[in-house]
């Protein structure tokens, strides 16, 4: 049995500009307190790689992209082969990643197997133990971050960097810390702040909705990139004067 957990047959949201499917891979090295995919993180895959390849073959001409997500897909040893075969079928490929496996990231990008990356910037280093469960992943993440920003600057990939925001675990100054870090690395593009929407879902840390809010008007304007806001009330994000 492979690490493939399930396949979402169609999405227009997860791969902008493409009609895509999502391949979800089981297992993850992190334990983010707000993770709303505990089954994918903690359980084992239920499908073989052949099932994904057969699905992609059957959707040729109807879908244009495939998203590799999870869990953390970069810890699936067969990911390069799956991405290669997807590209040979004509699909665009996107990877959703927590950025803690720079070795696999380099392999995928050096071999031209991934067109687009969505990278989660979880938190400033001093909060890693609390937010992602283990501070040892700070250095590999920073290696990945620097690498993928360089690849984007070289025009080799599309890149989106994003942070899931729960006001009990991050505050506005933590978001400012990340903005300053991205500016120092000359990230260009959009940095997305994503409000966590729990809707009572089970999370790894059994968290509840926060009653605190972010004060976005305190954020300074980034020099090299723009800010985007997802799932926040319009008036909350509008208070950030761009
Ligand atoms: S939210 Fe965290 S724990 Fe959940 S899959 Fe993503 S990186 Fe892993």
Provide structural commentary.
There is one protein chain. This protein has helices spanning 38-42, 49-58, 79-88, 102-110, 128-131, 138-153, 172-184, 234-238; strands spanning 4-11, 20-25, 65-70, 92-97, 116-120, 158-165, 190-195, 226-230. The protein has 242 residues and is of the alpha/beta class. It contains 8 helices and 8 strands, in the order E-E-H-H-E-H-E-H-E-H-H-E-H-E-E-H. The mean pLDDT is 93. An 8-stranded mixed beta sheet has the order 1-2-3-4-5-6-7-8, with helices on one face. The radius of gyration is 18 Å and the shape is globular.
Short description:
The protein is an alpha/beta fold. The protein has helices spanning 38-42, 49-58, 79-88, 102-110, 128-131, 138-153, 172-184, 234-238, and strands spanning 4-11, 20-25, 65-70, 92-97, 116-120, 158-165, 190-195, 226-230. It has an eight-stranded mixed beta sheet, covered by helices on one side.
Main sheet characteristics: 8 strands, mixed
Q: Please state the CA-atom Rg, rounded to the nearest Å.
A: 18 Å
> What level of helicity do the residues show?
25-40%
Give the bound compounds. Answer: iron/sulfur cluster
Percentage of residues in strands: 15-25%
Helix and strand composition category? alpha/beta
What low-confidence regions span 5 or more consecutive residues with pLDDT below 50?
A: none
Q: Helix-strand pattern, N to C?
A: EEHHEHEHEHHEHEEH
How far from one another are the termini? Answer: 50 Å
Question: How many H/I helical runs?
Answer: 8
Which term fits the overall shape?
globular
Arithmetic mean pLDDT: 93
Instruction: Give me the side-by-side strand order of the main sheet.
Output: 1-2-3-4-5-6-7-8
Count every beta strand, where a strand is a DSSP E run of 2 or more residues.
8
